[in-house]
Amino acid sequence: MRICLSMIVKNEAAVIERCLRAVRPHIHAWAISDTGSTDGTQDIIR
Question: Which of 12, 14, 19, 35 is most buried by its number of CB atoms within 10 A?
Answer without folding.
Answer: 12
